[in-house]
């Protein structure tokens, strides 16, 4: 379990950059998808970050928790919104989602400062 979510996000970014060196087209495609899907639209970026954070909980991905908790905090999501999102994730994902939901809240709290 991560204790320093900012450090984990930095570590994961470094790992992804290393992979991108070997598969630059894949990395460019992923980054373009990330940019397009994250734009303001019918859903605002904070809501999209909360959705991504919920999917990180469902996938049991600590890197996803770090990246998307950081994005949720950056885009102005509130702690209450994160907690409600975790409740939905637990309803859908059971005990493992409860465990990862706690981790997601910890990550969000760190990034929200």
TrEMBL record:
InterPro entries according to UniProt: AhpD-like (IPR029032), AhpD_core (IPR004675), CMD-like (IPR003779)
Gene Ontology terms for molecular function: peroxiredoxin activity
Keyword Metal-binding in annotation: no
Pfam family, one: CMD
Keywords, ordered alphabetically: Oxidoreductase, Peroxidase
Coiled-coil spans in chain: none
Carboxymuconolactone decarboxylase-like domain span: 24-100
Protein name as it appears in the record: Alkylhydroperoxidase like protein, AhpD family
């Amino acid at each position: 379990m991560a204790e320093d979510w900012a450090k984990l996000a930095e570590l994961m970014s470094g790992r992804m950059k290393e992979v991108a060196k070997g598969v630059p087209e894949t990395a460019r495609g992923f980054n373009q998808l990330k940019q397009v899907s994250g734009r303001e639209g019918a859903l605002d970026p904070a809501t999209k970050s909360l959705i991504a954070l919920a999917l990180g909980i469902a996938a049991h991905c600590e890197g996803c928790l770090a990246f998307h908790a950081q994005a949720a905090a950056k885009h102005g999501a509130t702690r209450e919104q994160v907690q409600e999102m975790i409740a939905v994730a637990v309803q859908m994902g059971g005990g493992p989602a409860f465990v990862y939901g706690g981790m997601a809240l910890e990550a969000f709290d760190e990034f929200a400062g």
